[in-house]
Amino acid sequence: MTPQTFHRGEGPAPRPTDWNLPNALTVLRFLLVPVYGVLLFLDGGGDPWWRFWAWVVFALAAVTDGIDGKLARRRGEITNFGKVADPIADKALTGTAFIGLSVLGVVWWWVTVVILVREIGITVLRFVVIRHGVMPAGRGGKLKTMLQTLSLGALTFPLWVLPFGSAWLLVAYVVLGAALVMTVVSGIDYVFKAARLRETSERTLARRAARAAAREARSETPDGSTGDPAPPRTAKRD
């Protein structure tokens, strides 16, 4: 049962508070990021046991990403904080994983740079257009996040201890390649969405209406007068 179910009377339902379970899971994901980073580098990053626990923390953080959005929609607790903080938490987790795995020589640095430039750029773009509205994650962005999460989780896990470890590693790199492609494609899509949002937002439409009204007023009174007819001039007497 959603909070809106209890709303009675006239007027819109009350705005959901930011203090809710979905947002708490998002904050938890933020807190798990440094824990993952520490575990990844313990004992030089090559110990299977610590890499396994780093994978456990990464998987737990990734699971909260899937749960918080579903809970927010089911409970009617979608907030602007959640819309903004959720993708940032995702980027903090995946960014830490990309940098950490690149330091360990598992992921090529050029892949990390391309993906991080895209992620940081889109995050900045979200804040630039936030005056016009919040850009929620689209399908392309969600697919990108899923592919990144799968590949980073697989590359965090000590695959070399598994049977056919080389084959599993190849699969992980194939998924990483697909994630790279979706990262670039979805980034371009977000740029176009931001442009459309800026052009069609209520803020932009109101400013356009105000400018149009001002131009109309100036066109009706080009000499700066109030628009009232001038009083008739009396004829001069000889």
Question: What does this protein structure show overall?
Answer:
This protein has seven helices and no strands. The chain has helices at residues 21-41, 48-75, 80-103, 109-128, 139-156, 165-200, 202-220. Helix 2 runs antiparallel to helix 5 (139-156), helix 3 packs antiparallel against helix 4 and helix 4 (109-128) runs parallel beside helix 6 (165-200). The chain is elongated, with a radius of gyration of 27 Å.
Topology readout:
Elements: H1 21-41, H2 48-75, H3 80-103, H4 109-128, H5 139-156, H6 165-200, H7 202-220
Helix pairs in contact: 1-2, 1-3, 2-3, 2-5, 3-4, 3-5, 4-6, 5-6
Structure class: mainly alpha
Question: Could you give the order of the helices and strands?
Answer: HHHHHHH
Helix amount: 55-70%
Uncertain runs are 1-9
Rg, Cα atoms, Å: 27 Å
Oligomer: single chain
Which terms would index this structure?
mainly alpha, 70% helix, single chain, elongated, disordered N terminus
A few lines on this structure:
With 238 residues, the protein is mainly α. Helices cover 70% and strands 0% of the residues.
